[in-house]
Amino acid sequence: xxxxxxxxxxxxxxxxxxxxxxxxxxxxxxxxxxAIQPAPSTLSFDPSDSAVLPMAARAKRQGLSVVKLLSDIxxxxxxxxxxQRSVIVLVSEETxxxxxxIDGRIPTRQRTAAASAVxxxxxxxxxxxxxxxxxxGNLAVEHVGAIAAVLPIERALVWSRTQQTVDSFxxxxxxxxxxxEVEAAGSAEDVVRRSELVCTLTPSREPLVRGEWxxxxxxxxxxxxxxxxDHREIDSIGIARAKLFVDSVATALKKSGxxxxxxxxxxxxxxxxxxxxxxxxxxxxxxxxxxxxxxLFNSVGIALQDLAIGSxxxxxxxxNNIGLELDMSS
Length: 330
What we know:
This protein is α/β, with parallel strands linked by helices. The protein has helices at 7-10, 16-31, 76-79, 105-123, 138-148, 163-176, 188-194, 236-241, 249-255, 257-264, 277-281, 303-319; strands spanning 2-5, 35-36, 51-59, 64-72, 84-92, 98-103, 130-134, 155-159, 181-184, 197-200, 219-222, 243-246, 295-298, 324-326. It is built from twelve helices and 14 strands.
């Protein structure tokens, strides 16, 4: 039987700590070759227009394969619709049956924030207390809860191009995390220079964050840019200044504009893009080597993260009889 879960049905079904732990295991499994994660292809008639990305992964731990179909439609902004929309399909490894079809909006946001939290837990200084956010939308709100779950965050600085977005962010974070001090920053530079840990969360084409602003001991999660080779949030100086880690080397070298444009501009080479988050989790490579080192986690998102959260959602939905069940083979 196939369980179908809508956006409202998955909302609130999992805690962020559950998602963080699942995403951490998924990245470790990738390094240990207990999961398969190829780089996604792009279906696009015009690189500057809409794109569709079929993202796939397979994992022994959950006994599942996943295909997430991600649509990136820039024209949706003018329609008042989400620029990115997605659906997650889970398939049984044992029988090949379709186990679930899940709306991808909330799971994508949660697993992205969880990946940043995992990276922060392993790469940021453990005494990091000031979180900086470049971008103030739903993904930024999700990141506050995720980062606060792994580090002793006391203060959040936020900047966005739109004051209304910042005001909404502050109101929501004050409601969700009443003990956290929240402040609107004057610029992206202000955020970076005053924060111990920075998350960039914008679908930017041009870099909003410059490496010359980085400070000793800082950790940066650059996770907002879509999987397009011509979009980036961090300039080449920033990518070159930091010790770089990615979610998947194959994916980064095909889809991360932050990485590919830094390579094209000669700031780094492909040999500098060889350390995955799972390598650090599993102890294959060291993470932060000193208190003053600058570390950076760059991610455009991988299907294995969607498999990890999708498996949890399916298990919880079955236990609580949530969603519609259909026999797809009838």
